[in-house]
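Sanity check. The docking grid for zinc ion depends on where the pocket ends up, so I'm generating a full predicted complex first rather than guessing from homology. Inputs follow.
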Amino acid sequence: MVIISYLIPEVYHFELPGFNSNIYVYGKKILIDTGYDPAGADRIIEHLKKYDVKIEKIALTHPHPDHSGNLDRFQKEFDAEVLVYEKLENRYSNFGNKLILLKDGDVITAVDDLKLEVIHTPGHTPFDICFYDPERKVLFSGDCVFSFGSIGRTDMPGGSIQKLVASIKRLAKLDVEWLCPGHMQTVKNGNDHIQQSLMFAEQVAGVY
Ligand SMILES: [Zn+2]
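Predicted complex below; grid placement will be based on this.
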C-alpha cells in the first residue's frame, strides 16, 4: 500500500510500509529519497506516470539502503540525474555523466522559481545532506531530525552525536514551516520540532 499526501502543491509525500524512508517529489521534477521496497517503487512510478510527472533528478539525503534501495529502478524509469553528496562519488560512479555531486551551499533547481539549497548535515552518517526551500520554508531533513523531537541514529558506522548536534544547530537557524523528515510524519511548525530535536540531541551528547 502506498499512502500519498500533498503537503503543499509543490510537495508530494509517499509513504510505504516497512523498511522504507519517506519519499518526496518536489516541484514535480525532483525525487527525494527512493525507499527500498521495489513493489512500492512500482506503485509510485505508476502514480507519477498517471499524472504525467516526469522525474528529472533524484536526490539522496544519504546512502542508507532504506533511502536508496530503489535508486536504480527510479533512475532507469525516468533516465534521471542522480544527486548525492560529493564524497559519494566512487560509490555512485556507475551513473557516469548522470551523476551530479553536491556540496554544502549548492542550489538545485526544479523549475525557475522552485529551488532547493543543499545543507551538509553530518552526524547520522558523514554524507547526510538536507534540502531547503527558503521561499516556501520547506526542509527535507533526511535522518538528521524527525518530527516531535526525534533525531537520527548515530550508533552506526560514521555516526557522531557531536556532529549531529552541530548539524541540528544549523537547521535550527532556518525558518522552517514544513518539516519533511526521512521517517515519521511531515509536520507544520517545523521550527518547534527542530528545537525539540536540538534539545534532545544535546541531552544525548551530554552537553545540555
Ligand atoms: Zn539512515
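Relevant for the grid: The first strand starts at residue 3 and ends at 8.
Also worth noting: The mean pLDDT is 96.
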